[in-house]
Structure formats: structure tokens, C-alpha cells
Specification:
Bound molecules: FE2/S2 (inorganic) cluster
Number of domains: 1
Largest sheet: 5 strands, mixed
Structural class: alpha+beta
Order of helices and strands: EEHEHEE
Radius of gyration: 12 Å
CATH superfamily: Beta-grasp domain
Number of helices: 2
Length: 102
């Protein structure tokens, strides 16, 4: 599976990942996000925007993720925490934009 990542400066990079392993582990280093809490759903430094067209393939946002997102200034439709994101269906290409820093 390919993941197309747009970083904060607008540069685009493409990564190959296994859809059977978690996206955070595979992408957090590549994407150069801070991930300060190590994926514990508390720091929001892994805040990303996903495309509406990809929503059906993505895990649902649970209450703890929603609580963290609700505290952010730059939250918008498609906002997710990469550390909480997984696929619920196979997909060929996932598009991710790294959110602005808070
Ligand atoms: S790495 Fe901290 S909330 Fe995702």
C-alpha cells in the first residue's frame, strides 16, 4: 500500500507500508513527527488530516481520540491522530497531510 504524505511545508513524499501492520509504527519516523507520547493518545503531535474520500477505509475515531482532537486549535474535518489510525478495509493509496503545530 502507498501512503502519500504532504508535510507542513507542502512537500509531498510517498511511502510503501504494510497494510497489516500499524501505520504509526511504520510512518512516524519517516514523517518526522514528534510523537511525544509515543502513541498513547495524549500529546496530539501526530495530528494529521485525512481525505474525505478515504474515510470509509479508516478506523473510527473513538472517544479518547475525539477528546484529544477537541482540544486542538487546528482541528478540521478529516483530523485524526496517526497513532490511533488503522485500516478497516484494504486500500491502495492513503493520503495524509501533517497538521500545523499547535
Ligand atoms: S503520538 Fe501522541 S497522540 Fe499520537
Amino acid at each position: 500500500m502507498q501512503v502519500i504524505v504532504t508535510d507542513r511545508s507542502g512537500d509531498v513524499a510517498e511511502y510503501s507500508v504494510s497494510e497489516f501492520s500499524d501505520l504509526f509504527t511504520q510512518l512516524s519516523d519517516e514523517m518526522k513527527i514528534d510523537a511525544l507520547c509515543g502513541g498513547c493518545c495524549s500529546c496530539a503531535t501526530c495530528h494529521i488530516y485525512t481525505d474525505e474520500s478515504d474515510a470509509m477505509y479508516l478506523s473510527d475515531c473513538d472517544e479518547s481520540e475525539r477528546d484529544v482532537l477537541d482540544g486542538l486549535l487546528h482541528v478540521r474535518d478529516g483530523s485524526r491522530l496517526l497513532c490511533q489510525l488503522s485500516l478497516k478495509e484494504k486500500m491502495k493509496t492513503l493520503k495524509i497531510t501533517i497538521a500545523q503545530s499547535e
